[in-house]
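Fold description:
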Amino acid sequence: MFSTSAVTMITLLLSAVFLSFALLLWRPVIRLLVKSPLDNIPGPTPESYWRGIFGKVFHADAIDFLEDIAKTYGSVSRIPSFMGENWLFIFDPKALQHIVGKEQDAFEETDAFIASNKLAFGDGLLGTLGEQHRKQRKLLNPVFSVGHMREMTPIFYDVAEKLRGTLLKKVQNGPQEVDVASWMSRTALELIAQSGIGYSFDELTEEHAPHEYAIAYKQLSPASYNFVFVRNYLLSTLVKIGSPKFRRYIVDMLPGKNVLELKNIIDVMHNTAVKIYETKKRAIAQGDAALAEQIGRGKDVMSILMRANMSASAEDSIPEEEVVSQISTIMAAGADTTSNALARVLHLLAKNPDVQEKLRHEISEAKEPMAQLEHDRLVNLPYLDAVCREMLRLYPPVYMVPKAAQKDTVLPLHTPIKGLDGSEIREIPIQAGTNVIVGIAAANCNPELWGPDSYEWKPERWLKPLPEAVPQAHIPGVYSHIMTFLAGGRACIGFKFSLIEMKVVVSVLVESFRFSLSDKEIHWQLSEVVAPAVREGGVSRTLLPLIVERV
């Protein structure tokens, strides 16, 4: 029998579900009665009043569609959503300065984003807002200094050399077709595991059986797709009902294979995180000698964070459960983005053999054979830097980020647009609750700033002064006048990690191997992170088959 408190909580849960559905059904009525400031903004025609065009925007094959929207409507456009609701797709530089800079508190991550990350990873950086988020970043920021990057570089080389050794065995008898996406995924996970949490999941050999955490992590995203409706419209309400223990009790009672699968995935990730945390906690208590014996030698992000939190004042420290949550958060934030960035670089080099040869020559000239380039020398190789910057500009791993307006505000525009009524629009009133899509890829390819060749991959553009319009636009991104790593309080805190990881792996692989295209057609699909895929039998699979041969 249920206790009185349990019955009360279940009643609240059912009431919350009913209320969420009621609000969802009330939306079209509100839209018919209340005119939106976005109604005058040009944009694509909805497929229907009920569906809008969300089926095209949030679709695996949406990359070309989003590019067409940017080219057709410019830096601001209206995106018809479900039931007559309008979203704003924007990459105007002045508006971006307000969204992620001057008024970043007025534009937070959407409720669905925060709730789903909180459910999967706990109260880490991806699942928190406001003061709670700022306090966590304050503790983590010192870890990502240039000085610490220098200390981490040998760890990155160790992982890259393991991958190199495995690939040498694969191609010892001649060129072989290799699924580069799979190996970059495993490598990126191991890079962030060793440097981020001081743990090893993968020996990077063909014989190595995948760690249960690595399996769970890879299954998380596809398993979550089965709950898109719940995530977008119900989850943000449900996670506020009762205690975590009660919510888990409800989940355990829910039937269905998909629910059980997602629950097991999250359990594996959480239990592994707790195990790693407890091991580190004991090592810290034993002193520096014990830490030095661990992977990462006590210099990984989590070890430094835990020690900083232990010595912080009560005002600046964070609860233990938030520290544990950073483990899966660090893995989630650093693995997929880096792996697909690496895959994209190698794909581009395979498509552009002249660029690949020029890069190989630069790397070989800069170092002794089989030696490691020290950190400062590596980061200052001009052509390697240009190749990485241009890839990150044209092909950001995350193409867009939704935000939700927390209050009424006004977005000024760098370039005025013409409304549907013919009027000139220099600023856009934004009502609280309006959803805004920050077009990261579109901002990086804005032809008004980058010129008519903005959609072409040209590493050489970084070897000469950029067009004057680029610095004059004051793009708010934290890196190189582009929005790839965002800006403000939600900017990618580990982007320097990612850049060094990428340069280490690319330098090691390009020196040793030549990459060329196979006969399989590769296309890139949109998800949380853009990923390569091959269609086989009408089904797309995440693959990047390239021909790899020893130089």
